[in-house]
Amino acid sequence: MTQRYYGSKLVTAWEATSSGQPGYSVKYEDGYTSWSPKETFEKAYLPLGHTDSLPGWQERIVAEFVQLSDRLAKLNAYLDAQVENRTIDEALFALLEEQGQIMAKYLDILVLRLKIHGVTQVWSKPDPQ
Questions:
Q1: 109, CA 20 to 30 Å: which among 18, 35, 83, 98?
Q2: pLDDT above 90: residue 4
Q3: Helix (H, G, I), strand (E, B), or coil: what is residue 26?
Q4: Which residues make Cβ contacts (< 8 Å) with residue 126, sequence separation at least 6?
Q5: Tens digit of each residue's pLDDT (9 = 90 or more) over 105-120
């Protein structure tokens, strides 16, 4: 029986075309390289910026920061839309607001960890896609 899977992996990628289509060449940790269409790749991966000089554990903190930032931005956009046109009940809205506050605090902790370990001195946030 088939089922759906969700995963995350760290890859190195660069813009590349294939048969005239924009996309990315993708190199996986085991050295395997493939090509992915731009839209597919950008739905699956968030840019971390240049993290080559960081040890793996620091790169994972950066990845966690980038993922959480993206999720919090999407939650905030959803909540803003709900203020304009409420489609969920008040109790669920309040829970989502509380979740956003907790996520923001978590993000603050990750930023402090990045600063304490000196990561912010050698890494800058990635360019937007």
A1: 83
A2: no
A3: strand
A4: 46, 47, 48, 49, 66
A5: 999 999 999 999 999 8
> 42 is written with which tokens?
């950008």
Residue 35 neighbours by CB under 8 Å, 6+ apart: 16, 18, 23, 24, 25, 26
Per this entry, what is the length of the chain? 129
Q: Give dist(CA 64, CA 67) in Å, integer.
A: 5
Q: For residues 64 and 75, what is the distance between their CA atoms, to the nearest angstrom?
A: 16
> Which DSSP letter does residue 31 get?
S
Q: Which of 33-37, 75-79, 86-90, 122-126 is predicted least confidently?
A: 122-126
45: tokens are: 């991966």
